[in-house]
Amino acid sequence: MTALGVLLWATALLALPGRKVRLSSLRKKRVALRMGKRSHTAVLLLGAAAIAIVFASISGVYLMSAAGIVAATVSFRRRAVRHRRAHDTEVDSLVAGLETVVGELGAGAHPAVAAGVAASECSGTVATAFGRACGRARLGGTAHDGLRVADSPVSGELMIVAAAWRIADDHGLGLMGLLSAARSDMLARRRFRTRTQASLAGARATGTVLACLPVVGVGLGQAMGASPVRVLLGGGLGGVLLVIGTALVCAGLLWTDAITDRVCR
C-alpha cells in the first residue's frame, strides 16, 4: 500500500460518525455503549498509527519525533487548562455550598440537615462530599470525615472545611462562624487568583509569541530561497536540529506555564 493510500485510509477512519450517532438506537443498552466507546478508541488509535506510518515513510523518524513532542505538549497544556477550569467550577460550587450551610445553621437547622441541603444544591465532588458528611452525621458519626475527597479538584479546600468542622466538633466552637471564615478565605483566594491570572495574560502571550518566532524565521528563510525546510526535513544534522529546536520551544512553553501557575497559587 502506498503512502497516499495509507493517508486516505487514515482520513476515512477519522471521519467516521461519532459514537452518539452510531449508537443512537442503542442508547439504553450499556453493553452497546461500552462497545461503542472501545470501537471509537480503536479507530482513533488506528488512525494515529496510520498517520505515524505515513510520516515515517515520507520524512523519517526526525519529523515523527518532532510531531510527537508537539502533540505531547499540546495534550499536556489542554489537560492543565481543563484542570484549572474544573478547579474554578468546583470552588464556586463549594463556596455556594458553604453559603447554604451557613444559612441553614443560622436558621436553626441541624448540621446534618444543613449538609444535606447543600448536597442537593451543589454539583460535582462537592455535592458528594456534603452528601457523605450528611450521611455520617445522621448515622452518629463525624461529619468532617465525609468531607475529605482525595480525588477532587478541590481536595485542599475540602480539607480546610473538614478541619474547621472537626474543630467545631472537638472543642464546641460555633460551626457557623468557622464555616463563614472558611468561605471568606476561599472567596479572597478566588479573587486574588482571578486578578493574578488577568495580570499575567500579557506574560503568557509574550511566551507564545516568542515560541512562534523560530517558525517565523524558518518561513522567512524559505521565502528568501535558503530552503531551511528542505534542510530540516532532509534528515541527518537537519533532522537532529529539528528535534532539538522543537523540544526547546515546547520546553519554553511548559516552563512559562509552570512559572505563571506557581504565581497564581
Quantity of strands, as a count: 0
Question: Which word captures the global form?
Answer: elongated
Largest sheet, in brief, is: none
Radius of gyration: 26 Å
What is the helical fraction, as a range of percent?
over 70%
User: How many helices?
Assistant: 11
Beta strand %: under 5%
Question: What is the residue-mean pLDDT, rounded to a whole number?
Answer: 80
Distance between the termini: 53 Å
Write the layout of secondary structure elements.
Layout: H1 3-14, H2 19-22, H3 30-106, H4 111-121, H5 124-138, H6 143-146, H7 155-171, H8 175-199, H9 201-223, H10 228-233, H11 237-264
Helix pairs in contact: 1-3, 3-4, 3-5, 3-8, 3-11, 4-5, 7-8, 8-11, 9-11
Protein name: Type ii secretion system integral membrane subunit
Organism: Rhodococcus sovatensis
Keywords: Membrane, Transmembrane, Transmembrane helix
